[in-house]
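Margin note: ligand = NAP.
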Amino acid sequence: MELATVKAQNGKISFPYIPVAVFIGGTSGIGRATAEALARYTNGNTNIIIVGRNRAAADSIIASFPRPSFPSVKHEFIQCDVTLLKNVRQTTNEILSRHSKINLLVISTGEMELFNREITEDGLDRIVVLAYYSRWKFIHGLMPALAKAKEANEDAKVLSVASAGLGGKVDLEDLELKKVSLIPFLRSISTYNDLMVEGFALHFPSITFIHCSPGRVRTPLGSNSSSILFRTLSFLINSPFSPWYYYSLAPEDAGEYQLYGILYTASAPGAWRITQDGSDLGKKGYNGDENARDVLWRYTLEVTSTK
Ligand SMILES: NC(=O)c1ccc[n+]([C@@H]2O[C@H](COP(=O)([O-])OP(=O)(O)OC[C@H]3O[C@@H](n4cnc5c(N)ncnc54)[C@H](OP(=O)(O)O)[C@@H]3O)[C@@H](O)[C@H]2O)c1
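Resulting structure:
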């Protein structure tokens, strides 16, 4: 999809209501750029809630949004470290206390700590919490507000920014991903996101759930890593003197593509997978099945509901 086409289409965004959009991981990178594009195209007239740890970043992003013309419209930040599921529960309740409906929920939390794996207080792998459990728990907890938007005939859409199309088979005997080596581990997380959107689409059929692959995007993800390897790779991707630079996207372009994907490509309720340019990925690189979807759903409900 041509970027110019995507931008032209995004420029036509017009909601017949004031939307509410939540960006979990909206303080940086792809989430930030998608929030900025939405704020710009709606002239600031979207209620936007940014969730993350970095208050200073959120304040400066919010200050850069166009000032809304309706006094009731708010641009807010909620500080939350999503690696602890009790924080996810608390933030979900906070969001629900402020907004009874949600039209768009975009989740793009992540860090590049593949060689520095930690187990959280909840006894879960921190990477999997960021890429899967916390996302699942936010979506599940915020479902009443998404359903309320749908009941009012408004958009109700969820986007999980992860790695659609790069999935591998899930080992149903090792759902905690304790036994797998790094590559199958990463491929399992991709499939978990596929199965997550499919599971939610099955249980909440009026709502739209999307798993996207943003491609290689020039964000601080790698440069914030404790690993010298990822910091070096990130430097190479982010340097305009490197050939890799030309095979990567600027965050603002990724934001345009993802906004297009959520608003236009995912045009009906159900489970979707979209590409880095916001088009439909279909079942390319898909490694799930109905049994894995249902087993993972039950397992995740059990893990997340007790924390
Ligand atoms: N960039 C790429 O090339 C690329 C490629 C494929 C997939 N992805 C995936 O896309 C997603 C977004 O990546 P990005 O490039 O936009 O990264 P980024 O610029 O580093 O943004 C990551 C976001 O996650 C939030 N976050 C990280 N840890 C958190 C925590 N413990 N609690 C709350 N929020 C947390 C950060 O907010 P705070 O710092 O404020 O907490 C930030 O807003 C990630 O899942 C990444 O794996 C990225």
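The CA atoms of residues 166 and 285 lie 6 Å apart.
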